[in-house]
Amino acid sequence: MASEQVDDRGAPRGGATTPSEAAAAVPPEEGYHRGLGSRQIQMIAIGGAIGTGLFLGAGKAITKAGPSLILAYAVAGTVIWFIMRALGELLLYRPVSGSFSEYAREFLGPFFGFATGWTYWLFWVVTGITEVTAAATYVQYWWPAVPQWVSALVFTLVLYGANLISVRIFGELEFWFSMVKVTAIIGMILIGVGVITLGFSDAGGTASVSLLWSDGGFFPEGLGGTLMTLQIVMFSFLAVELVGITAGESVNPRKTLPRAVRTVPWRIALFYIGALTVILSVVSWTEFEPGTSPFVAAFAKIGLPAGAAVVNFVVLTAALSSCNSGMYSTGRMLRDLALNGQGPRPFRGLTGNGLPLLGTSVSAALMTVGVWINYQWPSKAFDYVVAFATISGMWAWVMILAAHIRYRRAADRGLLPRSAFPAPCAPYASWASLGFIGAVVVLMGFDPDSRVSLYGAPVWAAGLVVAYFVLKARDPGTFVRGEAGAEQPREP
């Protein structure tokens, strides 16, 4: 049965279902082609946490916190692991492409599903702008005469074309993008360790782990400086939840998704903590500058200009990978909203290859706003969009945690089937993670560069509330399905 013929719970339109009935009735294919295999899912999961935030944003964070940035990544990484385990438990309860938007709709109510779907769509549109901005910045390394907006436009058009072929092509692109990133980071770590232990290269005479505390201490800017980097740190981890969107197109989601979630701890330990520890042991934190990739700066210090060019190519692929993921996820999220009566009906359609063409096209068109931003403010474009991407992306994490708390409560009472992949320390870890995200939002208010997102977020929220009630007044039955699914089952 095509997903257009049923509502989001697999029941006929207007029929009330309990969450347990919904879990059993959800259409397994949702109209998509299950073209993402285990190899691709694993690399999408790995690559999702390696992007612009690490390769470019970390340079600014180092100047604010010094070596203590490593601790910030470790703490935030622990929270990310709890978030992903919460998502993993929900995915094994009911793997659907709508992912956390579906779970918010089921466990928190129709408005939260509506708000989550549209906010996550906005997040990826804004992130796409962020990443294409970063990619255009990297091109300046080789061709400084090429305007940033020209590079941004070319990248946007190329990735849009790639997303119109098939989901398998998307998976292959992400596989090789991620392979380049992973190989490069591991190679850089090995070279850095060699410089520290064997003393070769121009940096061999000064490279030492003592650089982590010798230039002003481990907290050279104080604890406050470290706390103020948490917004940048959390931005680095945005997109780790993308693996949840692939559930509807994974060949074997109940096997591949838990395996992907389990890789989160070592991904964070190796790619963030390990890489930054090596870089800051090769180059003193005082030598970094905002807007400059710490990886490029490290190779330049070592005296390998070719190595710096290679790293610049790697970070370019990282940015393009994230933008590619944005085009993939926005089309799916718009279709999920349309199938639930919370978005324009034309977004329901799929091509013969199982692709949401209209949703992807509209999202790509909006991403071209990044071209205009690069034209108007080439030096400030990255800072402007990072802050808003962070606040909108963290909303998805909040919904994952809140839905997980509600799900676990129902499962513990025997009202819903238990997931085959239970999250550890639940629900306490989910509550603690919510508190951490709340603290990050408060800290953003003290940072002039981040504060702009707190101005825009209430405007977006108000727009969502108005849109929700207008839609509900126009067609009261639109949200009946979400309301039925969101109710907690009553005890017999």
Describe the structure.
- This protein has 492 residues and is mainly alpha-helical.
- The protein has a single domain (51-486), classed as Up-down Bundle (Amino acid/polyamine transporter I).
- The protein contains 22 helices and no strands.
- The chain has helices at 19-25, 38-47, 52-65, 69-93, 100-107, 110-139, 148-162, 167-198, 211-214, 222-227, 230-237, 242-245, 253-262, 264-282, 294-302, 305-339, 357-367, 369-376, 381-412, 428-444, 448-474, 480-486.
- It is globular and about 70 Å long.
- The chain starts with 18 loop residues before the first helix and ends in a 6-residue tail after the last helix.
- Residues 1-29 and 481-492 have low confidence and may be disordered.
- Residues 41-466 form the Amino acid permease/ SLC12A domain.
- Residues 1-27 are annotated as: Disordered.
- It is a multi-pass membrane protein.
- This is Proline-specific permease.
- InterPro entries: AA-permease/SLC12A_dom (IPR004841), Amino_acid_permease_CS (IPR004840).
List the helices and strands and how they pair.
Layout: H1 19-25, H2 38-47, H3 52-65, H4 69-93, H5 100-107, H6 110-139, H7 148-162, H8 167-198, H9 211-214, H10 222-227, H11 230-237, H12 242-245, H13 253-262, H14 264-282, H15 294-302, H16 305-339, H17 357-367, H18 369-376, H19 381-412, H20 428-444, H21 448-474, H22 480-486
Helix pairs in contact: 2-8, 2-13, 3-11, 4-11, 4-13, 4-14, 4-19, 4-20, 5-6, 5-19, 5-22, 6-7, 6-16, 6-17, 6-18, 6-19, 6-21, 7-16, 7-18, 8-14, 8-16, 11-19, 15-16, 16-17, 19-20, 19-21
